[in-house]
Each structure stands twice: as C-alpha cells, then as structure tokens.
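Re: your question from the hallway

Yes, I did run it. Sequences:
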Amino acid sequence: MSDAADQVLQAQRERNAAKAAGKKGSKAFDPTTQRTDTSTKASLTDTFDTELYERNGLDKFAGYNTSIAVNDEEDEEMEDADGDSGRNLVGQYTATTAQREEFANGGTEEADILVTREKQAQIASRQSDYQRKGMERRVLTPTRADPFAENRQAGVEENGQSYREIMAMREVEQEEERVRKAIEQKEQNGENGDTHHSPTLKGPSDKENAEAGSTVAVSAEKKRKRRWDVSTEEKVSEDVQMEDVKPKKSRWDEIPAPGAAPAKRSRWDLAPALVTATPASGAGLATPMHPSQMMSFGTDISGRNMSLSDEELNEMLPNEGYKILDPPPGYEPLPAAARRLLPTPAAATGGFMNQQSEDPRSMGKQLPTDIPGVGDLQFFKAEDMQYFGKLVDGAEENELSVEELKERKIMRLLLKVKNGTPPMRKTALRQITDNARQFGAGALFNQILPLLMEKTLEDQERHLLVKVIDRVLYKLDDLVRPFVHKILVVIEPLLIDQDYYARVEGREIISNLSKAAGLAHMISTMRPDIDHADEYVRNTTARAFAVVASALTIPPLLPFLNAVCKSRKSWQARHTGVKIIQQIPILMGCAVLPHLKQLVDCIADNLNDEQAKVRTVTSLAIAALAEASNPYGIESFDAILNPLWMGARKQRGKGLAGFLKAIGYIIPLMDEEYANYYTSVIMEILIREFSSPDEEMKKVVLKVVSQCSSTAGVTAGYLKETVLDDFFKSFWVRRMALDKRNYRQVVDTTVDLGQKVGAGEIISRIVKNLKDESEAYRKMAVETIEKIIAGLGAADVTERLEEELIDGILHSFQEQSVEDIIMLNGFGTVVNALGIRCKKYLPQIVSTILWRLNHKSAPVRQQSADLISRIAPIMSQCGEDGLLGKLSTVLYEYLGEEYPEVLGSILGALRSIVTVVGLSTMQPPIKDLLPRLTPILRNRHEKVQENTIDLVGRIADRGPEAVNAREWMRICFELLDMLKAHKKGIRRAANNTFGFIAKAIGPQDVLATLLNNLRVQERQSRVCTAVAIGIVAETCAPFTVLPALMNEYRVPELNVQNGVLKSLSFLFEYIGEMAKDYVYAVTPLLEDALIDRDQVHRQTAASVVKHVALGVVGLGCEDAMLHLLNLLYPNLFETSPHVIDRIIEAIDAVRMAVGPGLVMNYVWAGLFHPARKVRVPYWRLYNSTYVQQADSMVPYYPVMDDAKLPRFELDILVNLDDLRRTRREQLCKTAT
Amino acid sequence: MADKLRTQQQLEALQSRYLGVGHADTTKFEWTSNIARDSYASYVGHPQMLAYMSVGLGQSREKTRLDFIEKMVRPVGPPPERED
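Structure:
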C-alpha cells in the first residue's frame, strides 16, 4: 500500500517538474516543497535555470546513457565491421552505421565551414577517435639503457631504464588496469545499494568463447615450467605464492619480490627525464598548459602594462620644452621576450570583466617572424613559442655554456627546417645531418620528438620533422638505441594514418630505425608493449613489428614470433603475435613465400585458442598469408586445413567471418580435386550464411563464393545445382542495391559466377529485374549484364531471352531519372554483342533515341547522342543506312546546341556516322555540313574542339574535293589557334588536319598565310606557325616549302628570321632522312645564322643543325656537318644555360653524324687546359661522348708523349708470310 | 648556385653509372687509367679483335684475355705521390 502511495507521489513530482520546466521564463520551482516561489524576484542563491541545474535528486537523464564510450573494447581488425554483430530482430529501416560513418567522416564527408582553414590543416582535426588515442599515449617514455652498447664497462651505472624495470612497470600497469576494471564492475553492480547477483552459470562475456570452444581439448593440467615471457625466476615463485595466498592482489599489499624490489618503481615516482618534454611555461602544473590556453580570452592584461611607444608619448606630451634623454650608462632594459614567454598571470578573475578591445600593439608583437640568428621565416605559430622561446630571450651568447649553445643551435636549425623557406630548409637539414654525431642523439631527439607530439601539427611540418629524423638516423646509427622507444611512440601512429604517404614515411623510419638499432634491441624495446593493457598500443606495436620484419628479413624474427604466438601468460601477447604475422604479408607480399611454412606453423595452434579474438585474428592472418602467396604455397597450409574447416563449423558471428575469409583465400591455391572437395564441404555453411543479416558476413560470403567459383575444380553443374538458387534468392534483392559496397560485391560475384555457368543462365535469372521499380536495382542488373556480355558475348542468349533483354534494357534506359554512364555502357555493349540479331529492334531503339534527342534536359540529349555513336557501326552492319541518314539529318539540325558537353556528343555522333556510311553517301551532304562546322571550330570547350577537329580532319583526309578551297583556307585560320590547345590530342589532331588541308589545296596558299603569320608579334602564335610550316613541308615534300621559307629569311627583321630558323628546326625534325637532299641548300643560311651577333639566333640555328645532323647520320653529308661544327665550336663558352644546352646538343648530333674520332680531336685540346673555365665545357663534351660512344672512342684516344700509357697492343701486326712459314715448319716437324 | 648544385648532382648520377666520366678536376693519372682499362675492355669484348691480337702475340685467346684483364689492375703504374 505504502509502495503504491510512494509511486503516486513520485509520479506527481515528476509531472510538476515537467510542467515547471515547460513554462519558459517562470520562476524557479522547488519540487521538494511543491510550491512556486511567489515573490516576483529571482532568488539570489538559486540557480536560475532549472533545466540545466536541477536541485534535487530527480534525475531526468535516468535511463539514458550518461556518457558514450569513446571506443568500445572491439578490436579493429575488421575494417568495415560495424558494431551490430548480433542478430537484429527488427528489420533495419535506417542507414547502417557504416553508411552513417561514411557521411560523417568518410569520402563523402563535407568540409565543416565553421572550422577555420588553419584548423582543417591540422592533422589532429582529421583523425578518428581511435587514431587520436595516439595523443593520449603521448607521454614520452624515459630514456632506455642500451645493453648492447659496444664499449660498455661492467661497473658503469647507466642512466636509463633497463629491460627488467620496464617489464616490471608494465606488469604493474596491467594490474592497475585490471583492478580499475574490477572496481568499475563492482560499482556498476552495487551502485543501487542492492548487490547484483551474477548468475552462477557462465557470464555473457564468456559466451562467445564457450559456444564455439576450441576444437582441440586443452589439457587440464598446465605444465609449469620456466617460460620466455616470465621475467625472472623469483617472479614465478612469487606468482605461485600469490595465487596461493591472495587470489586478489592490489599493488599495495604486494610482497615485494627480493630481486624486483628496487625495480618496481611506479611511473608516478619517476621524475620525467625530459625537461623539454613538458613545456617550461607549464612547470608546476600537473598537465602542461598550452600558451594559448594559458591566456584565455580577455584575461591578458599585459597590454595595459606595456610601455608606451614613442608615438604615444609624442601625442601626450607637448613638443616644446621637453628633451629626450639618453638612458644612463649601465642601464639594460629587461629582456622583453622572457616576459612574453610567461605572461604574468592575471589575478584569477572571477568577477565581471569588460571584453577588451584588441590592442593593435599587442597583436603584431606577440608573434615574431624574424628570430635572431634564424632570419625571416615563412610563419611562426603561437605554439612554436613554447618550443623555440629560448631563441628570443636575448641571452648573451658568450655567457652560455657549451651545452646550452648546442641546444640553441639545434633549436635554430629545427625552426628553420620546420618554418623556413625551402632554401633555408635545405641548408638547415644538411647542417643537422652533417653535425648529427657532434650534437648527439639525446640533444637532437629531446627537441625533435616533443615537436612531433604537438597537437596543432600540420602535414607539412610533420613531413619535414619526420624527414629530419630519417636523415639523422643514418648518421647516428647505434647511438639511437636509448631513444628507440621514444621514437617509436611518436612514429607508430603514422602507421595507421589515413594518409598513404604518412604510412609510407612511418614505415621507412621504423625500418631505418631497426637497421640502426639492431634486431635484439628492437625486440627488447618493443617486447613490453606486446601485452600492453591498451589495445591501441598493441595494434600499433604489431604493425611496427611487421615493419621490422620486412626490414631485417623474417628468419631472425621467427623464434621470437613463435614464442609470442604461443605465450601462455596472456592472450593479449598471443593476439599481438598473430597480428604481427598478419601484417607481415600485407607489407611484404609474395616475399613471405620462403618462410611461409614457418609463419603458418607459428600461428597454427592459435586457431584453437581459447580466446575468441585470438582465433579470429589468426584466421585473418591466414587469409593474409594465403592472399600474399597466391598461387603458390598450398603445402605450407596443410597443417591448418583441418582445424580451419572444422573450426568453420563451430564458429558463429565474427569468428566465422574470419574463418570463411581464410578459407576463401586458401581454396584458389589448391589443385582441382582438393578445391572441389573443400568447396563442397564449406558450401553448406556459406549457403546458410547467405541469409545472415550482418553486413560484414555478407561481404565475406560474397567474396568467398566468387573465389570458390573461379577455381578450376568447381564445376558449372555443381554451382547451378547447389549455389545459384540460394544466391539469387538472398542477394538479388532490392535492398542490396542501396548500399554501394554491397552493390559492388554482388555485381562482382555474379559476374564471377557467370564466368563459370555461362551468360545465358545468369541473364535469364536477372533479366526481369530490368523492369523493377527501384532504379538502383535496375542499374545493378544492367551493370551485371554489361559485364557478363562484355566478357562472354551474347552467343548464349536465346531468341526469347534476347527479346526480353532488349525490352528490359530499353525500359530501364527510358526510365532512368539520373542519366548514368552505366546505362549507356550497358545498352551499347548489349547492342554491339547482339550485332545483326538486333535488326528487328532498331526502329524501336531509334525512335526512342529521336524522342530523347528532343528532350528539354541537356544530359538526356547528351546521353542519346552518345548512344548513337556507340550503335552506329551496328546499324550500318544491319543495313539500316536509311535510319542512319535520318539520325544524321536530325543531328545536323541540332548543331546549334548551346551546351558544349551536348554539342561535343552530337559532333561525336556525327563523326561515327560519317565513318560508317562514308562521305559520298552522307546525309546531309558534306558541302552543307562543313560550313556549319567552321564557326564551331572557334568554340573553346575541349570536348567540342576535339570532336570537331576530328570530324573536320576526316573530311579533309577522305573527301576534300567536296568543299571549295576558300572554305578550307578559312578553316586553316581557325586551326592555327588550335595548335596551341592545352590538350595534346587536340594539338595532334590539328597538326594532322593541317597537313591534310595543305595536301588537298596545295601548299602555296597555306604557306603564304603561314609566312605572314610569322611576322606577328605574339610568340605563342609564331611557334604554332613554325610547327604548321614543318607539317606542311612534311606532307607536301620540302621542296615546295623551302624556297619560300629561305626567301623569307632575307627580311631584315629579327623576329621573322628567328621564326624561319625555328620552322626550319621543326621542318628538319619532321622530315628526318629526307634532309639529305637539302643539306647543301640550307648550309649557307645556317652559316649566316651561326655567326650572327644575336645569341638567340645562334641558339636556334644550333637546334636546326642538331636536327639536320641527326637526320643525315650515315648518309654521306660529313663534309657539310664538319663545316657546321667549325662554326658551332666557338660557341662552346656561352654561359646562358639555354644557349649552351642547344650548342652542346648540336655538337653531340654532329658527332653522331661524323663519328667520334673527328670530333674528339677538337676536345682533347681542352681537357687539361690551365683555365678551369675552358676545362669545364670540354669535359662536358667528353662525358657525353663517353656515355654514348665509349667503345668507338677506343681507337681514337690520343697518343701520350710520356710512355706512361703504352698501348702496344694496338701495334700488333700479323704478317701473313710469317704465319705461313711457321705453319709449314710445324707441319714438317709432325711429318718427321 | 642552384644550377651549380644541379650539375654537380647530374655528374654524380652519371658517374655512378659510368666510371670513366670525368670533370674539370680529373687528374691525368685517373684519366689515363680509365683510357687503358676501357681499351682492354674493348679488346676483350670484341672476339675478332681478341683473336687477331692473340695470333699476333702467338698465344691462345684465353691467355690473351686473362693477360688483358690482369693488366687492368694499375694499368699506368702506381698513383702519383700526394703532394700535401
């Protein structure tokens, strides 16, 4: 009874509270007294807002999760796995988590316009929560001792943590974590006062392990022997003791083990080794404060106390009667920067403060860009002050100790690298690298690493700092050992960055690091992290270990991996060990093959691990190994085949997905017989899982099906019988088309199945979907059909099916609401594959196209024009020239189209029709068509340009007589502009067309226009003209062009002469060997050009010589070439890079034409000339000869005066008479 | 400055592939050794040339070949004394 009354009371209270909250602006209502405050004033003591500050225990958030965990305990091994591994009983009507994720931070994410650009550039702002955990880990571990140092004396105490200390610490951390969890658990259970009794049967957490269980029974008694992963022997005994005495230990009542006692320092007792790791300004605070945080908005009162500037004083004080005094000798102003670094904290201002207007004086002053001793920087951020503040404190150089000076030197160099201009960066980087050993590892890394951990770091800065580390590593070599862990803490997060280049950089650093520090040290450094309490640390460590393996090869690492994967101490260690093996093939690819057997052996037992997570990651590791070793190495997997297949039967959920994935990758390695057998074994499970609601499972199943179906051993009959029905029932449903990833997977798998069972079988099953009401689903069907028909052809399609197919595709083409390339491709492929068989459907198709060509929406018109260009060849094959003529007439009418994209497609369609029907029968006739095209040539749109020029070129090539010469001339003018188009295809098409036109109407008229064009001022168009002249000469033979061109050289105008030379250069480049007939004709002209005063003249003439010489190699024009060489050679001492490059090229070309012997005679003279200015270019010539013709130089090396270089071998002369005599003597001897 | 650096780099890249490439500070000793080695390499590399020379020297081709390869070691005598 009283219970009921309480309930009523409670309900009443809540109603009242809700009502009070609902009334906006009402006075605070105190539900305890159930009385509204009758006074009209707000209470001074109460909080005004009852919404936010509830005053009694009434928790309106009861029943909600008050906090959302940043990350749950899930491992991240399945990248795309979304949380709902459990079976949803209710159909899913909302977007999946994966989809939502994609919009929130996937590829489709939109930039948040409220975030500043500066913020967007920062790496931290782009990271996912998981990646940001790297930040949380951002406490630099203390320096480690280097047990492998070469010259370590026995008695010397090292200042660094030893391996034992670290292992002990790690254990304490794990214990802390465990206890914390236990406490949390306890609080959760007992928070309502009444104790929560857990069922005596197995708890839910263990269910996953229990239900599948290990496939091999684990022997009950565990052997207790000394294992690798127990640090000391005393520890073992201690463990035993503890387990006996106290099952639940806290670190307080632990009996310190005799050996480990001094080592058991908690990390709280450790003084941080780094002073710079925590910013100096935050000294004394538990968490170092950011300078920007330190000065919250409006609390910086230093501006008020700033000294007055001269201008202000001038304004305040009268000008007359005052005098500016010199400061007394000995007075030194306080170093300003020291104050700036740590502003006097304003008295904790709790009360009201006026917002201060931004003081212009304080704005510019806070952030200098000019640091003494560094120079002008590109930028200087507020955060940099914290690291580089020392540089601006104005301390006297000669008062500092050597160490301090060194520190500042490094600081300056780092600042230059990080914030400087590119040339500054380069020199600073080189200085750091060169002096790395003098600076010492400690001094360098103590500064670099904190910079890398800055929250506001941007990509570019990170890249540069990582580069510094990389360079420094090379130099420091084994000196880095004490810092390996620190570097790893900073670099490991790069391995899971979204940015590919960051990952590569991280890998490079870690691989260099492991080469410098050595395997033993790497292992002892990273070993403690392998069973770290935090999954993030374990994950990154595993990846780092894989990099180490790829750097130092796998074999030396194998014993360690073997031990870790079999660790009995913690499942985390096993998990990490297996993960290392998973990452190795991902990094190394098929390079794992030699060690495949050992790697598989390492993880074989983990398939039966008692921990579900370990089993899953093991199956994934096997999948990765099998994927990397494809198509070899099946024998290495022999040992695990049975457990894998057995395990697949026992697993459920996520574990099963992993097992199936592994199986899917192993089956393609098998030979036919085995593949067939193992497929049939697994297919049962696959078919069962077809209906799984889990997205991840669906993906895996689809992948496995496509892998199975593409192996040789699986027959079409088997697939038809057992797989196809279920497959189509569960995957060809509308819902699958909505998610992009599923869509892709289904299409790919269906195509793979189609490869086996044939096109007809698949198409007949999905053809009805072409008329489905869901557009995405129709698209999926079209894409699948397109891929299958493109691969297998349409021979398998029966007449009835063909009808359905065309009907369906036409329907889906007409019904599309968004014009899609997939529809177009599908239509085109189907029509092309059917060929002559679609004759009877053509009228229908054409009428659809015609209707859509007239559509008001531009994309529809464009698509139908594109479709015409795809099916035009088939239409002509079917003999439907009448229809084609109709289409082209309509297209011709649409040439006034205003959208360039559509116009381009229309032109493309016209082009393909012209190609198939020929110029003579083209409807409308060419003489009407071409004049319509001339104005379109002026269109600047690339697609339009490309298609018109192609069409015009075709006409000029095949039927130039259809149009009169005047029209062609007009087109020539338009084409000149096109010669300088951006797109290479357009330029090439324009060039070719030029040639065709010149051929059609004769070169005279064209040449006249072109030569006139040479006088134009604009350089670009002169170059184009020069090119065009070259083309005309090539197509119409050079003798039609050369006389006019050389005549033009007589014009006493620099531009024109230059243009002539340039066109000669192109001309000779194009005509190649034809040049031999014209060499002597142009030599006098070149003579004149080569001795001109103007540099550019000689330069261009040199390039003409080059092309001529290269054209006439071996054609007997050596005399002319030698003459030109004599004229070229004096230019060897030109200094302008362009000129000297052309000259050297020309000399090289002449060398090709006349052989190295003659040309080297010019070179020997200067190789050892007393003047370096002479030697340099001569050696350049020598080098290029040496590279190109070293062997043919041998006979021509000069004879040295001193006998140091006797080449008597060259003097060997065989006298035939002598030979005959000796031969005869020998014969006589043998005869007697 | 940058240009000089670039030519320097180009030369280094070239030299890593072609040993005999030289520069303004190449000594006569280096140059002549390279010439000698290249010559021997060329004699050995052309079978007809090698046959001809062996006939002239009156020994087997293999012997000549080995002789020539042997001679590539310090072909112009020991390096000159360094003066500093």
